[in-house]
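Structure in, sequence out. Go:
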């Protein structure tokens, strides 16, 4: 099992630079950031752009993997986004992972002035968006004429640093998303259900296993990633070191291969004791394993 963190883009770079460097010093496997224009309780406050933040983070780190948690079609088009992803992969020297999902119905969904998509259209767009990204990132030149997205002689040169492209980790809980993860994902992401705990994740993993079998895809070779969404009455993984070890152990038994914790932000739903957080980062998994 691996342990990673997600650093929300709420800090000016003079502060954020030290946070990303510290994440690497603590030994996290990866550091991700949200790919939103703003988010829930942080709306109305500082919130910086995802791609420039990751590019800057790549320039001040050398070992830790970097990625999105998660990108979506809500305000992006595959052609310019693929160019940005190719560039992030090059700047990071092949340390980039694309976390990608269908997107929610929050602020991002209407920021460009469009009508909210139905559940069916959102799933349709997600599939077309992800498949076109895959094609763009694995070919020098792409022409595609889809229902929602088109590309005409779109060139991606020199191509991804990681070959055939950077890993896709697909966030999915429904049947169409699970099918897409089995088709194109090197990993699968779940946010679980902090109010119900491991039971929900266990059921999701079984559905993922079935989707992999239907696609003739090896299940064991896929990364299974859980993003912890703060503390609830049921789950409080950062309330103490012992709480983390117990929490992580339960998900390890289910087959989760990577856990992601939010970098603590005071006076927010992601508030946590920094001392506990750093001890978890440096010692937590050793206690889970031992």
């Amino acid at each position: 099992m691996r342990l990673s963190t997600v650093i929300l883009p709420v800090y000016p770079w003079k502060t954020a630079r030290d946070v990303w460097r510290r994440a690497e010093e603590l030994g996290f496997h990866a550091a991700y950031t949200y790919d939103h224009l703003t988010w829930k309780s942080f709306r109305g406050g500082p919130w910086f752009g995802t791609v420039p933040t990751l590019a800057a983070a790549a320039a001040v780190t050398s070992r830790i993997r970097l990625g999105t948690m998660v990108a979506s079609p809500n305000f992006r088009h595959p052609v310019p986004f693929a160019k940005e992803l190719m560039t992030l992969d090059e700047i990071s020297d092949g340390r980039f992972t694309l976390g990608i999902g269908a997107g929610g119905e929050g602020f991002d969904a209407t920021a460009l002035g469009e009508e909210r998509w139905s559940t069916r259209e959102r799933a349709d767009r997600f599939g077309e968006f992800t498949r076109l990204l895959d094609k763009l990132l694995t070919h020098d030149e792409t022409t595609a004429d889809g229902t929602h997205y088109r590309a005409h002689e779109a060139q991606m040169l020199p191509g991804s640093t990681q070959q055939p492209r950077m890993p896709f980790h697909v966030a999915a809980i429904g049947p169409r998303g699970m099918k897409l993860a089995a088709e194109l994902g090197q990993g699968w992401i779940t946010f679980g259900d902090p109010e119900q705990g491991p039971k929900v994740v266990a059921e999701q993993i079984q559905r993922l296993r079935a989707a992999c079998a239907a696609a003739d895809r090896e299940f064991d070779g896929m990364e299974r990633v859980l993003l912890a969404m703060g503390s609830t009455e049921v789950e409080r993984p950062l309330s103490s070191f012992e709480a983390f070890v117990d929490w992580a152990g339960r998900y390890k038994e289910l087959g989760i291969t990577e856990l992601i914790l939010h970098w603590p932000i005071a006076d927010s739903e992601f508030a946590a004791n920094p001392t506990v957080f750093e001890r978890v980062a440096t010692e937590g998994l050793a206690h889970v394993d031992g």
